[in-house]
Design goal:
The complex is a heterodimer of chains A (565) and B (297). In chain A, helix 15 (452-461) crosses helix 16. Chain A has two domains: 36-186 and 368-449, 3-Layer(aba) Sandwich (D-Maltodextrin-Binding Protein, domain 2); 194-365 and 498-515 and 523-564, D-Maltodextrin-Binding Protein, domain 2, CATH 3.40.190.10. Chain A has a four-stranded mixed β-sheet. A three-stranded antiparallel β-sheet of chain A has the order 3-14-6. Chain A has 19 helices and 15 strands. With 565 residues, chain A is α/β, with parallel strands linked by helices. Chain B is mostly helical and 297 residues long. Chain B is built from 14 helices and two strands; from the N terminus they run H-E-H-E-H-H-H-H-H-H-H-H-H-H-H-H. Chain B is globular and about 75 Å long. The mean pLDDT of chain B is 87. The chains are: A alpha/beta (565), B mainly alpha (297). The A-B interface holds A 12, 16, 19-20, 115-116, 118-119, 121, 134-135, 138-139, 141-144, 235, 244-245, 303-305, 307-308, 313, 505, 509-511, 513-515, 518, 521-522, 524-526, 529, 531, 547 and B 12, 15-16, 19, 39-43, 57, 61-63, 125, 129-131, 149, 151-152, 239-241, 243-244, 247, 252, 255-256, 259-262, 265.
Chain lengths: 565, 297
């Protein structure tokens, strides 16, 4: 009995120790949030004049918060709070980037932490860049951030303004009562616009040319399946690898171009003939697209389990050498398609244009030119410093010219490096490893001009030497077919349907949209699988309108009409 | 027991009691959100009070009864089978004489418990595929059955979900029952043998009755989860073809409350679930007391 109780004591004691350890950990995390306040204030008050400067002396402080991409690497003992980029900003621009807190952004940790910080009344950062659309809307509605559009007009450089003008719609999601409450983070355009990747070696062996219409596509798919050049049995081949587990409007293995050929793109808001916005899934043209897909399903052109497949699954048969066609973005020749040759030596993937429907129409969903938004705190002492930083980035990074500051990349030894003879190294050859130091910058990815990457790719496709930073970068590190794919993509520039509704979730959407999506997915999948007749589409449209769809359409058009004023 | 002797024990309980209050009872104040149009930046105090609107939204959906029904059927069958399967298996395993074989089997059936549904979802997708999946190939070559679309057919989906869940977790339950078996007083068996009872009679009159109390405990505890049909599993396996039979409350909450940031609605549904579960726990607890004379308090 005595030894037993002794053991029990040690056990309980060690348990207690462990629990205090845990408590200790969580406590110290909370404390780091406090440290940033100190030091910021005296400097801010010393600077009475509120004028834009190219370099601040004494330095000014910008506070921010970080959601650190788990893939982001650090070297030389640096952290997101203190690294080559923060040092650079202080030395070159006199801007001291202070971090209130940072969190590794897995499972939406950043959005969650920011939401909590917001609701518990913690200090909000001067500047924050947000990718999560709903969170951005919530933060804007919280009233803690200021009219960034006004500041933008006043302080932004011409390069930045011109970049922003490439698509004036980028401001739309952030407009409140005519005020632009956030600065959209520009991204390279067409990143998610897609085309078809096809097994050129199969086409060559069959003596076929690339299909340009839906009818020709059917012939090609039939030949791939029933007369396979690699000798695969018909039920081993997936002529067209697509999937629609969650949506019919996605990025890889996307089926929405089938509907595009008949004049609509599902699950987004398109501009109708009358100038009003219309939900693509209820357009009568959907019926023809569904009929085609159903036909292809019964003939075995598309995967039998397409309803169970998400995007990454559609790439599996393609990489395994069992699929003939895979819809997807222009950059796919690098990932995932580059791996195909490991499985099938003779495989050659080539990009081709989307085939047209019976009326000569073709369509795909467009991509917005933005990737999040930058918000500026109402109480920020030196909002113009943000523009000092970003103007520099747009001038020197986004628009880098041969001989410029960021001619070869951002920071030597991080995102680029040279060998002894001054030749740029591939990412994997950089000593100590490649680090995407662009992610250390105040605004994610520094600065991007939407059409810059496409222009660089087109120049390469035309056989020009790589001279600018972007041209060198894409040439060095992207898949071989990428310039060619960019050319194909831009050959069909006009066919993209951008999603015209980029506003906040409307009140009816909040309560009804999930149900509407559910019956839509259910009906469309069952039509394709032949479990329901084509007529059920009409019934679906009626239910959709009656169960809140009509009201949502009105709300969306309300928002849209206010914009165009 | 006097307090002078036992005070160290009370002190030792204190930290966990504090943690329990801090993390389990204090957050209950958040139930308020169920009656609010909750906006994170306004907090509990300033968010608009909407009364029962969130509950109204939940039941106004055309498919809400379907979803609740799916949840009940799937989880009820899971509870019954997750009790029956390990119970039977433990009985069978107990009859095995070779200790090594017994341990080996025990470990083997326990292993799937440690796999997450994200991984199993991918595995099941391949194994159950109609397109050369392992299960369908066996069915067609051995029994001549044409391929069954386990994950995409409304008639099969629930079956697949329940069976895969039982397969994953019955090893864990088996361990609990085996522990109960090792506690049976050996003198009972000796006495039975003297009286000339066969193995079967011994099982029937000694083993099963002595396992019943623990079975009742496991069953009672499981009933509290009657409205949890298993989010991770369904979320990784379901698809538009089986919404009709496979959509459950949790996946529905995920889509409306989490994806849309509708905290009020999410809390309302959570509260609804908790109230139903609590009623069921009360009932099962009373029943456990009446039928098996078992009580926790």
């Amino acid at each position: 009995m005595k030894t037993y109780s002794k053991k029990a004591w040690t056990f309980v004691c060690s348990l207690m120790l462990v629990s205090t350890l845990f408590a200790g950990c969580s406590g110290s995390k909370g404390e780091t949030t406090q440290t940033a306040d100190t030091g910021a204030k005296p400097q801010a008050e010393a600077q009475v004049e509120n004028a834009y400067k190219d370099k601040y002396d004494p330095p000014v402080t910008i506070t921010t918060v970080w959601g650190v991409d788990p893939e982001l690497k650090f070297k030389n003992g640096e952290t997101i709070e203190n690294n080559v980029a923060t040092k650079w900003a202080k030395d070159t621009l006199g801007i001291d980037i202070q971090s209130l807190w940072s969190v590794t952004d897995t499972n939406n940790a950043f959005a969650t932490k920011l939401r909590l910080a917001m609701s518990s009344g913690q200090q909000m950062p001067d500047v924050v860049t947000i990718g999560d659309a709903q969170l951005a809307q919530d933060l804007i509605d919280s009233g803690m951030f200021q009219d960034a559009g006004e500041l933008f007009d006043k302080y932004a450089s011409d390069t930045w303004k011109q970049a922003m003008e490439q698509d004036p719609n980028v401001w739309n999601p952030y407009i409140r009562d005519g005020k632009r409450m956030g600065i959209p983070v520009l991204d390279y355009a067409y990143n998610h616009d897609y085309l078809l990747w096809i097994r050129q070696d199969w086409l060559d062996k069959l003596g076929l040319s690339a299909p340009t219409t839906i009818d020709e596509l059917e012939k090609v798919m039939d030949a791939f399946k029933n007369n396979n050049p690699d000798g695969l049995k018909p039920d081993e081949v997936i002529p067209l690898s697509i999937g629609f587990k969650t949506t019919m409007n996605t990025w890889m293995g996307d089926p929405s171009w089938v509907f595009g050929a008949y004049g609509t793109i599902p699950q987004q808001w398109n501009k109708g003939a009358d100038g009003k916005l219309e939900y693509g899934s209820i357009n009568p043209a959907m019926k023809q697209g569904l009929q085609k897909l159903s036909e292809w399903f019964s003939k075995g052109y598309i995967p039998k389990e397409a309803a169970l497949w998400d995007e990454n699954k559609t790439a599996e048969p393609a990489v395994a050498g069992k699929a003939g066609i895979l819809p997807g973005p222009y950059w796919m020749s690098g990932w995932p398609l580059a791996d195909t040759v490991k499985n099938v030596k003779s495989a050659v993937w080539k990009p081709i244009a989307l085939p047209a429907g019976p009326d000569g129409k073709a369509g795909r969903h467009g991509t917005l030119f933005t990737n999040g938004v930058t918000l500026i705190n109402k109480n920020m002492k030196h909002p113009e410093a943000v523009f000092t930083y970003q103007n520099y980035m747009f001038e020197n990074l986004a628009n880098s010219q041969p001989g410029g500051v960021f001619d070869n990349g951002l920071f030597k030894g991080y995102d680029y490096d040279m060998d002894a003879s001054g030749k740029a190294l591939r990412y994997e050859d950089i000593p100590g490893g490649y680090v995407n130091s662009l992610r250390y910058l105040l605004v994610r990815d520094g600065a991007r001009i939407p059409d810059a990457q496409m222009k660089a790719l087109l120049n390469l496709a035309d056989g020009k030497e790589a001279t600018t930073r972007l041209e060198k970068e894409v040439k060095l590190n992207y898949g071989l077919e990428t310039p060619e794919a960019a050319k194909v993509l831009m050959g069909q520039e006009g066919i993209a349907y951008p999603n015209m509704y980029t506003g906040p979730t409307t009140s009816t959407m909040k309560t009804k949209m999930d149900y509407l999506n559910k019956i839509e997915n259910q009906t469309f999948n069952e039509i394709i699988y032949g479990k329901q007749g084509l007529d059920s589409f009409d019934k679906f449209v009626e239910t959709w309108k009656g169960s809140g769809g009509e009201q949502i359409t009105n709300e969306v058009n309300d928002w849209y009409s206010k914009l165009s004023k | 027991m006097n307090i002078k002797k036992t005070w160290p024990l009370h002190v030792m309980v204190l930290p966990s009691l504090l943690l329990l209050i801090l993390f389990s009872y204090v957050p209950m104040a958040g139930i308020v959100m169920a009656f609010q149009n909750f906006k994170p930046w306004l907090g509990f105090t300033h968010s608009e009070w909407v009364g029962l609107d969130n509950f109204h939204t939940l039941f106004a959906r055309q498919d809400s009864m379907e979803v609740i029904w799916n949840t009940l059927i799937i989880s009820a069958l899971k509870i019954v089978l997750n009790l029956a399967a390990p119970f039977t298996f433990a009985l069978l395993l107990n009859e095995v004489r070779k200790a090594f074989f017994k341990r080996f089997v025990q470990t083997l059936v326990y292993l799937p418990h440690f796999l997450s549904w994200v991984i199993l979802g991918g595995i099941l997708l391949d194994v159950l595929s109609t397109d050369g999946g392992f299960v369908n190939r066996i069915l067609s070559s051995w029994f001549g059955i044409s391929p069954i679309f386990f994950l995409g057919d409304n008639d099969w989906f629930r079956f697949t979900v329940i069976l895969s869940d039982v397969w994953k977790d019955f090893g864990f339950g088996t361990i609990v029952f085996l522990a109960a078996l090792s506690n049976v007083n050996p003198s009972l068996y000796e006495a039975a043998e003297v009286d000339g009872a066969s193995r079967w009679k011994q099982t029937l009159h000694i083993t099963i009755p002595s396992m019943l109390p623990i079975a009742v405990v496991v069953g009672t505890l499981a009933l509290g989860n009657i409205l949890n049909a298993g989010f991770d599993q369904i979320f990784n396996l379901y698809n538009p073809l089986v919404y009709q039979k496979g959509d459950i409350i949790d996946t529905f909450v995920y889509r409306t409350a989490i994806l849309n940031g509708e905290m009020g609605l999410g809390t309302a549904i959570g509260l609804f679930k908790s109230v139903i579960s609590m009623i069921l726990i009360f009932i099962s607890y009373r029943m456990a007391y009446k039928l098996a004379n078992y009580r926790i308090f």
